[in-house]
Amino acid sequence: MEQLGVVGKPNVGKSTFFSAATLAPAQIANYPFTTIEANRGVGYVKATCPHSDFKVQCTPRNSKCEGGIRFVPVELIDVAGLVPGAHDGKGRGNQFLDDLRQASALIHVVDASGCTDAEGNICPDGTRDPLDDVRFLETEIDQWIAGIMGKGWERMAKRTESEGAKLEAILSEKYAGLGISPIDIKTAMKKSPVPDKFTKWTQEDLLGFARELRIQSKPLIIAANKADLAPASNLQKIRELEGYIVIPTAAEYELVLRRAAKGGLIDYTPGARDFKVNDPSKLSPPQKKALDKVHEYIAKSEVGTGVQRCVEEAVFKLLDMLVVYPVEDEGKLTDKDGRVLPDAFLLKRGATAKDMAFKVHTDLGKHFIRAINARTKRVVGADFVLSEGDVIKIVSDA
C-alpha cells in the first residue's frame, strides 16, 4: 500500500487532517507535541470503476465501490511535529524523521492563518509568515538526509578511492532503508551537480545533493490548512510558490463531515462540495449550526474542504500514479474465488505488465510469461505499458 507522510510543525492541524482523511483515532489538542508516536490510518483515492464498461457488478476485496467510484486505499502516517533543529534531535525530531523512511510522498500541513510560531505555540493572528514554515521543514529534511550520508563519510571516500567502488552503488546501499531507489540517487547526482570524486565534495555539495534527493524521493504537496481562517493574502502567497502543488484545506470541517456521515446524519462523498442532511429533525441546534457553517464554506470553495483533493493530488499528480485491476479470468473478470474485479492497485504511470505482476505477488513477477488485456482480449508482453483502468490477467509458471 502506498504511504503518504503527513508532516508539519506542531499545532497546525496535522492530526486533524489525518483523522479527517482516515477516520482513524488521533489525539487532537491546541498545543504543541500532542502527537508523540506516529498515527497510522487508511485513506482512499477515487477512480472510476471499470465494472460499468464491462456491464458487470463488481465484488471488491481490497477497495470499496460506491456509485461506480472505486475507493483505492493508501496509508497515511501522522508523525510528531517538526521544529527547527529537529535533525539534531530537538523536539521529537529524530522520531519524526525515522517514521518517514518508507513514505513515498509528504503532505506538508501549513498553518495558512499564520497563528502559530516556529515551535507551534499560538501567536497573534497573521504574525507568522507561512512561507517560513515551508522553508524550514524542507531544510530540516535536507539536513536529515545529509546527516545520514555524513555518517561514515571518510570510510565512503576511502571505498571510492582505494577500492574503486562506484559512488552511486555506495549511496544506494546507504539509503536503502529510506525507500530511496538507485534511480533517485542517479537523478539527484545529475541535478545537484556534484564533483565526480567524492573526496572533493564540500558540505555545500552534500546539502545540495540531499536537497535534490529529497525532491526525487520524498516529493511534497502543501496543504494550506485553516484556509477558512486565513487572510486572503496568505493563501495567495502560498499558491504563488513555484514548483509546488498547493491545496487550501479546512481539515476541521472535513472531520465534521466525515463523522456526521459515519453517524448517518448526512450523505457525503469525500471531496464533494455539498452534502445532504438525511433527517433534519435528528440534528441538535449545535449540529445544525456547525453543518450550516461547513456548507457555506465548501459551497464557495473550488476544492470543498480540500482534504480529499490533497490526498488524491499527492497520489495522482505528485507521484503520477494510475489504477489498474488484476484478474485471473479475463473473460469473467474474476479471481480464483469468483470475485469480480476484486482488487485495485496503484502503479506509477509508465509501469508495465511485468511491474504489475510484481505488485500483485513477487512470484508472479519472477515467473512472468505473458499477460492478457481484458479490454482488448489481446496477449501482451512484459513491456506492455499500462493505462488508467486497465484490467489485466497475468500468466506465469509459478
Briefly summarize what is shown.
This protein is an alpha/beta fold. The chain contains 14 helices and 14 strands. 36% of the residues lie in helices and 19% in strands.
What do these coordinates show?
The protein has about 400 residues and is an alpha/beta fold. The protein contains 14 helices and 14 strands. The protein has a domain of about 80 residues: Ubiquitin-like (UB roll), CATH 3.10.20.30. About 35% of the residues lie in helices and about 20% in strands. The strands form three sheets. Strands 1, 2, 3, 4, 5, 6 and 7 form a seven-stranded mixed beta sheet that branches. A hairpin with a 4-residue loop joins strand 12 and strand 13. It is flat. It starts with a strand and ends with a strand. About 0% of the residues have low confidence.
